[in-house]
Specification:
CATH architecture of one domain: Beta Barrel
Largest sheet: 10 strands, mixed
Oligomer: single chain
Helix content: under 10%
Number of strands: 38
CATH topology of one domain: Lipocalin
Radius of gyration: 21 Å
CATH class of one domain: Mainly Beta
Strand content: over 45%
Number of helices: 1
Distance between the termini: 40 Å
Length: 552
């Protein structure tokens, strides 16, 4: 594996996901009340790192192919994009690293939603400038937030982070996490593991990987280093080796990663997270995961969210799970009971920070509960999860320590949803809404994968409320958009972050909420489940296309 960085930093890491499943929307403009709030162009000021994963419209099999985009741009606080940015693109056509962003413009509405047009060119199927649709996290000073691609080249979701450091990671312990697809068949592939960087930039460590349902372990070969970049980082015993990874530093605790290998595949996106403690966290944990169900009775993506109580050493109890397994969901708009599960925690070498979680009565694939095994790596941003059992499963995601159990009334929230509709097409949405004691009201921007299906400033109204008398932070959001009604079970992580899973049996996905009075950094770790679901979505659609071709 080779890595480079210029105002960007390198390393591998797993990313977390924000996804939700919505019915496809048609292009049009809907009359809604004008946005209200205190945001302005001044709240987008400084250097930003953005990362997006989703589906492109220019691949070998258009509208099926997985794509990854990561880069930086500078905003002057007055609506102008500077000429110091760069962006990496990767899809089945090819990849380009460090493509210059030479300028552009942006706007910010009073509710914190906005758009940035980045002037750039690249050789992998993009036919116009890159347009980002975003929602910001705070109207007090410069802030980051959540982002989607919003042009006719494709669609995807991710984060927009105000860069606090462009330096190479310091000596210390880290967790690397990568997810994406392998080969023209778009097989899902992911890596997660603990690595150490010494004062000379040498990297050592061991990784878990899964490719198309086949799990294994591998190591980073001796001699790998990031002292001079680009530099070799070779995987020994993995399904892939000699990868080239580009990296963009967000902060000392998070580096965004994207593969730019000469042979295109695997196409990977992820993070490098700092790790100041190797202990598994105790207390209440909220998680999101996604995977691919290839069983005959439930073929397609799977999305899960829930919580569990950890004793920090051996036992997981009081597990609650909401899921949508290829259309089979435990929930309905009336809020039917969660799926209850339990589990165990076992420290498992080679890394002192590697743990195996065995979850019983847990719904992963197949439309029913079973027992599943996951490798878990604690980081300063959450716990990275990757399936490692022999079932052929492909699930991955992240868990977070829960510090709050309720959405706040009278508060502005930014939302990102990324989903697959009934036809398998991707939809990515940015919304902003304000809460009352039980209602929500705001606006939504929707991208249904083509330029003809871009909707700006649609109405977004509905209600929310708790589902459990035990006040675990689990609730249900029902929201009306111009094209559909969204029903999503949510789990509050902190005063700044909430995760969600779509619970409509006809829709599937994951989502993320950020409090607009909070910090954008609280949403950074949510990328991994989101990125993995994007890869799963591509794999599921490729699998469906293959089966259809075989029947002809």
């Amino acid at each position: 594996m080779y890595m480079s960085f210029h105002n960007r930093v390198i390393l591998p890491a797993l990313a977390v996901l924000s996804l939700a499943f919505l019915i496809g929307c048609g292009s049009s403009s809907h009359t809604t009340p004008p946005p209200s709030g205190a945001f302005s162009k001044a709240n987008l000021s400084g250097t930003y790192v953005f990362n997006i994963v989703g589906s492109d419209n220019a691949g070998i099999n258009a509208n099926i192919e997985f794509q990854a985009i990561t880069g930086t741009f500078s905003a002057d606080g007055n609506g102008n994009v500077g000429s110091s940015g760069a962006v990496d693109f990767n899809n089945s056509v090819g990849n380009s690293a460090g493509t210059p962003i030479t300028g552009g413009t942006y706007s910010v509405s009073p509710d914190g939603r906005g758009q940035a047009t980045l002037t750039t060119t690249n050789p992998v199927g993009i036919t116009s400038n890159l347009i980002l649709d975003f929602v910001l996290s705070s109207s007090s000073g410069a802030s980051g937030g959540l982002v989607t691609e919003f042009d006719g080249n494709g669609t995807g979701s991710g984060t927009l982070a105000l860069q606090s450091s462009s330096a190479q990671p310091a000596a210390g312990n880290y967790v690397v996490a990568l997810t994406g697809v392998f080969g023209p068949g778009q097989l899902p592939v992911s890596y997660a593991g603990a690595v150490a960087i010494d004062g000379s930039g040498n990297i050592t460590g061991a990784l878990d990987y899964q490719q198309g349902g086949n799990a294994g372990t591998c190591t980073i070969a001796s001699g790998s280093s990031v002292a001079t970049l680009p530099a070799p980082l070779n995987f020994t015993g993995c399904s892939s080796s000699n990868l080239f990874i580009d990296a963009y530093s967000v902060s000392a605790s998070d580096v965004k990663l994207i593969s730019t290998s000469a042979n295109v595949y695997p196409i990977l996106s992820g993070d490098l997270f700092s790790q100041s403690s190797t202990s598994f966290p105790s207390g209440q944990l909220v998680f999101t995961m996604s995977g691919l169900d290839s069983t005959p009775n439930a073929s397609g993506p799977t999305a899960m969210a829930g919580l569990m109580t950890s004793d920090g050493s051996s036992t997981l109890s009081n597990g609650e799970e909401d899921y949508d397994d290829a259309g089979f969901s435990n929930d309905s708009p009336s809020g039917t009971p969660f799926n209850a599960f339990t589990g165990t925690i076992q420290n498992s070498p080679p890394a002192s920070s590697r743990y195996i979680l065995t979850l019983g009565n847990f719904v992963n694939v197949g439309g029913g509960p079973g027992t599943w095994g996951f490798a878990a790596y604690p980081t300063d941003n959450g716990v990275v999860l990757i399936e490692v059992d022999s079932s052929g499963g492909t699930a991955a995601g992240m868990a977070f320590a829960q510090t709050s159990t309720a959405l706040a009334s009278g508060t502005g929230y930014g939302m990102n949803l990324s989903a697959s509709n009934g036809g398998g097409f991707e939809e990515d949405d940015i919304a902003e809404f304000t809460t009352t004691t039980s209602g929500i009201s705001g606006g939504i921007d929707m991208n249904d994968q083509t330029a003809a299906n871009l909707l700006t400033d649609g109405s977004f109204t509905g209600n929310y409320g708790g589902l459990d008398p035990t006040a675990t932070g689990r609730g249900l959001i029902t929201a009306n958009t111009p094209d559909s009604t969204i029903n999503a079970a949510y789990y509050t992580v902190s005063s700044n972050q909430t995760v969600m899973v779509e619970v409509d049996p006809t829709q599937l996905g994951l989502g993320s909420l950020i409090t607009q009075s909070g910090s954008a950094s609280s949403s950074l770790a949510q990328d991994f489940a989101q990125q993995h679901l994007a890869a799963i979505r591509a794999a599921a659609k490729a699998m469906k296309a293959k089966k259809a071709a075989e029947k002809k």
